[in-house]
């Protein structure tokens, strides 16, 4: 089987999907697209504003519509929002369109990278650390189930990741 022409990164907020995705795309000569950035580009506002005006459901509807389109593109590395896997439609679209890589980080690393970030509306709660643990417990099984390759972020060496992908496909 040939190397996939689309690589889809999944994982929690702060796992490094955007950073790794950009490196991977550059390395493979592919285009990089981040679904959250695409939503922001189309709406002209930041994600927290969408949550404020339309609620999480409104955001999820936009995310689903954008992902359906992005999953049709070729020669891309696609970074998805952490909650994109929650909808079955998104899971199906991702599964049929490319190789799915789960970037799996420790809670302590996720917390370290997100705790001062005001751009993650789901973490704007009285106890964001507890929320992160809850999201991890809820989503880790979904990410694992969906992924073709699981990458612990401690192993985030781009050459290693590419080799793993090659071996896997
Ligand atoms: C979300 C993750 C965010 C963004 C939105 C909701 C989530 O993306 O889509 O705030 O449900 O985990 P990142 O994973 O890129 O931070």
From TrEMBL:
<feature type="binding site">
    <location>
        <position position="120"/>
    </location>
    <ligand>
        <name>ATP</name>
    </ligand>
</feature>
<comment type="function">
    <text>Catalyzes the conversion of 3-deoxy-D-arabino-heptulosonate 7-phosphate (DAHP) to dehydroquinate (DHQ).</text>
</comment>
<feature type="binding site">
    <location>
        <position position="60"/>
    </location>
    <ligand>
        <name>substrate</name>
    </ligand>
</feature>
<comment type="subunit">
    <text>Monomer.</text>
</comment>
<comment type="similarity">
    <text>Belongs to the shikimate kinase family.</text>
</comment>
<feature type="binding site">
    <location>
        <position position="18"/>
    </location>
    <ligand>
        <name>Mg(2+)</name>
    </ligand>
</feature>
<feature type="binding site">
    <location>
        <position position="82"/>
    </location>
    <ligand>
        <name>substrate</name>
    </ligand>
</feature>
<feature type="binding site">
    <location>
        <position position="156"/>
    </location>
    <ligand>
        <name>ATP</name>
    </ligand>
</feature>
<comment type="similarity">
    <text>Belongs to the sugar phosphate cyclases superfamily. Dehydroquinate synthase family.</text>
</comment>
<feature type="binding site">
    <location>
        <begin position="14"/>
        <end position="19"/>
    </location>
    <ligand>
        <name>ATP</name>
    </ligand>
</feature>
<feature type="binding site">
    <location>
        <position position="139"/>
    </location>
    <ligand>
        <name>substrate</name>
    </ligand>
</feature>
<feature type="binding site">
    <location>
        <position position="36"/>
    </location>
    <ligand>
        <name>substrate</name>
    </ligand>
</feature>
<comment type="function">
    <text>Catalyzes the specific phosphorylation of the 3-hydroxyl group of shikimic acid using ATP as a cosubstrate.</text>
</comment>
<protein>
    <recommendedName>
        <fullName>Multifunctional fusion protein</fullName>
    </recommendedName>
</protein>
């Amino acid at each position: 089987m040939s190397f996939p022409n689309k690589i889809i990164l999944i994982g929690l907020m702060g796992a490094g999907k955007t950073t790794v995705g950009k490196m991977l795309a550059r390395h493979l000569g592919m285009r990089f697209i981040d679904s959250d950035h695409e939503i922001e580009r189309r709406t002209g506002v930041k994600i927290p504003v969408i949550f404020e005006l339309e609620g999480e459901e409104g955001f999820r509807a936009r995310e689903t519509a954008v992902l359906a389109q992005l999953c049709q593109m070729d020669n891309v590395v696609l970074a998805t929002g952490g909650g994109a896997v929650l909808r079955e439609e998104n899971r199906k679209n991702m599964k049929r369109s490319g190789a799915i890589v789960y970037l799996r980080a420790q809670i302590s690393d996720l917390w370290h990278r997100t705790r001062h970030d005001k751009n993650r509306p789901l973490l704007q709660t009285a106890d964001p650390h507890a929320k992160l643990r809850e999201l991890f417990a809820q989503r880790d099984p979904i990410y694992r189930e969906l992924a073709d390759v699981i990458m612990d972020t401690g192993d985030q060496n781009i050459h290693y990741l590419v080799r793993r992908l090659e071996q896997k496909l």
